[in-house]
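lol ok so funny story. i was supposed to be doing the assay writeup but got distracted and ended up predicting the structure for this chain instead. priorities right. anyway since i did it might as well share w the group, maybe its usefull for someone
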Amino acid sequence: MKAVVTHRVCLAGALCVTLLIAACAPYPVQEVNPSLPVERARELVETPFFPQDKYQCGPASLATVLNAAGADVSPGQLKPLVYLPGNKGSLQAEMLATASHYGYLAIAVPPALDSLLLELSAGRPVLVLQNLGVAVLPVWHYAVVIGYNLEQRTFYLRSGRDKRKVYSFKRFLESWSRAGYWAMVAVVPGEVPVSANAADYLRAASALERQHKPAAAWRAYSAGTRRWPDQPLLWAAAGNAAYSLERFADAEAAYREALALQPGAAPILNNLALALAAQGCSQTALSVLDCAIKRVPTNTVLEETLQEINGLPKETGDCRRFVCDLPETGVQP
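and the output, tada:
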């Protein structure tokens, strides 16, 4: 895969047309997997349309996918968050991060034609980056793919001031490949894109926490654990979000799932102890900390948690037993 370009400058009008004339070099074009489980044709005609102002393809395209996901936001509201006047455009990092400001997840789509078709077939428009120029003279442009027809080999885009711009597969894929096949989708917390991978999804969900939206983060992480139940980081993150919402029983359950996948992880043990103590299970919490300290004897965070829990009343709740499991250390509880 090509390296991601950092500067994303989008232009519109005659300049794009002029540079397209020079775009004659051959580029690799991906082919559709014949066994891909998608409809033969799909067009998301209800996708909103925001005709872009000059250099504003980033805000216009982001507003398109956010509104399609249920947001009520205009390109003008997004412009201060994503548009960089010095570059006359928007960077991918800002495009991904801004969605969390409004409580949505923006998730990078794997750089493949099949991923694009899967999302569209599932009813989700896809924001893409195109290079409408050539490698030595790039013309960066954000647009939103809203449909395709496999028989006619065409794509349909909300692009610039065109509500329905038609591209041949070859022409679109060439412009997309020159931008490293970069794409993203926006979803509500609790929804998982069909093409997403666990790492990109976790990154998007954690942005909600950084925006101080713990309830949204909790819904996102919980959906992630259902999609990828073998990922300890997702379970641990779900536990942290639940704890911040004072859903201590949910936090405990998530931490236990994380430890089942990653036994002896000291940070998760520490957090499990706190979740137990918050439910009145101080003795069980101390046994969890004892296990963690055997694994990491000189951890100041564990020592501070131990002091805090030692000062709590004796256990009174109906507490689930904890069994220390340290398979890698050889230390027995």
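The first strand starts at residue 41 and ends at 43. The mean pLDDT is 86.
back to the writeup now i swear
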